[in-house]
Design goal:
3 domains, Dihydrodipicolinate Reductase, domain 2, 35% helix, NAD, Rossmann fold, six-stranded parallel sheet, Alpha-Beta Plaits
Length: 431
């Protein structure tokens, strides 16, 4: 007999947890009609019972005891919105081992421990759903696993960190420096007091590791994602990008090549007419290329209480449908291949290179000679007016091997006429 109510245990009642609870309450009737049964939050795990939660809750719903959720046979779905890995990983494993389907928004846990979690879900015939772990309310994981499942995905790349996108948008619009924009982002609550995860690219690295694993059906370990943040981006780089017809974005990039998977996070010059160039503020966008569907792009809010909660609730509804039909775990881990992850030196890009050099004859020729010797072809050269005894030179290469550029720059550093390699930024999005 079909259950009339499926009961849920909620781990955490922070920003996203409150959003999940609100959506389940406010949209209860339409959710019930879509799923076929009522969904009801029976227990919520919190650290403290006395804290004001800012929402009306039934008496007795809060608990500080995990067993009230994991050991309750009535609770069929556990929703994890605590964040972090310790002790969250243990909590989720306990729920899975008790035969409960799990919905999580935890990118850190999925990126670092996904293999272990999927093994537990498979062993116990449970769902493990994690749409909200990447790009907030944008349904990109479900799209890759289901809607585009008939494709060979060739490439996934995009803006998957709202904080850095906000900062780069402000730097582009206002000509502001990094430090000033970071302070503003922190004041508005877009950046944490310790912004390292965002500005260092680590948040985006976790997300692109998840997306690449799904897109290419092969697990991508987080420690193999080349990661570079936006801390070196200056107002000068922003101005040069505009002059050259580009916009700077922090991108997560993953490509499936015959030799292996290319996966990286770094600041990127993209053409001003590229669809991602127009994605501003805290918005996210993910560009997917499939061999059948061609080019597609998915756009929306990548964080926040309700956008993230929207994705969580959609997963809860999917888990409930699977329970009703007795098919939990029907779409589990899709990493059925084992492909190598390429070193950054094995990748190809165009490059923007900004140098501080001595203002004297022959400098450009000596630099060009080094690049030529390393098989790096130059597309354009800009030399600004000298200030004192130094000049600024900006080079843009043709598409070349990263290792060749790296080797050339090592030699260029040794030239007495080169004062500083001020910045190196990859260029993508051009045919």
């Amino acid at each position: 007999m079909m259950e009339q109510v499926i009961k849920i245990g909620l781990l955490g009642l922070g920003t996203v947890g409150r959003g999940v609870y609100r959506i389940l309450q406010e949209n209860q009737d339409s959710i019930q009609k879509r799923v076929g049964v009522k969904l009801e939050v029976k227990k919520v795990l919190v650290r403290s019972l006395g804290k004001d939660r800012g929402i009306n809750l039934p008496e007795g719903i809060l608990t500080t005891n995990l067993a009230d959720i994991t050991q309750d046979p009535e609770i069929k779905i556990v929703v994890e919105v605590l964040g972090g890995i310790n002790p969250t990983l243990d909590y989720v494993l306990e729920a899975l081992n008790q035969g409960k389907s799990v919905v999580t928004a935890n990118k850190d846990m999925i990126a670092e421990h996904g293999q272990r979690l999927f093994a537990a879900a498979q062993k116990n015939n449970c769902d493990l759903l994690f749409e909200a772990s990447v790009a907030g309310g944008i349904p990109i994981i479900r799209t890759l696993k289901q809607s585009l499942a008939g494709n060979q995905i060739e490439e996934v790349f995009g803006i998957i960190n709202g904080t850095t996108n906000y900062m780069l948008t402000k730097m582009t619009q206002d000509g502001s420096d990094f430090a000033d924009v970071l302070q503003e982002a922190q004041a508005k609550g877009y950046a944490e007091a310790d912004p390292t995860a965002d500005v260092g690219g680590y948040d985006a690295a976790r997300k692109i590791a998840i997306l690449a694993s799904i897109a290419f059906n092969s697990r991508v370990p987080l420690n193999q994602v080349y990661t570079e943040g936006i801390t070196k981006i200056t107002a000068d780089d922003i101005a040069y990008a505009k002059e050259l017809g580009y916009v700077i974005k922090l991108l997560g990039i993953a490509k499936d090549r015959p030799e292996g998977i290319e996966v990286r996070v770094h600041p990127t010059f993209i053409p001003q007419n590229h669809p991602l160039a127009a994605v501003g503020d805290v918005f996210n966008a993910v560009f997917v290329r499939g061999n059948a569907v061609g080019d597609t792009m998915f756009y929306g809010k990548g964080a926040g209480e309700l956008p993230t909660a929207s994705a969580v609730v959609a997963d809860i509804m999917d888990a409930a449908r699977d329970i009703i039909r007795n098919v939990p775990g029907i779409i589990g881990c899709t990493c059925f291949q084992t492909k190598p992850v390429l070193d950054i030196g094995e990748t190809y890009s165009k490059y923007y290179i900004r140098l501080q050099v001595a203002d004297k004859p022959g400098v450009l020729a000596s630099i060009a000679l080094v690049f030529g010797n390393k098989e790096v072809s130059l597309k354009s050269v800009i030399q600004k007016e000298a200030t004192g005894k130094t000049a600024e030179v900006v080079l843009v290469t043709h598409r070349v091997l990263e290792q060749n550029v790296s080797d050339a720059l090592m030699d260029i550093k040794q030239l007495s006429s080169v004062m500083e390699i001020a910045n190196v930024i990859r260029v993508e999005g051009e045919e």
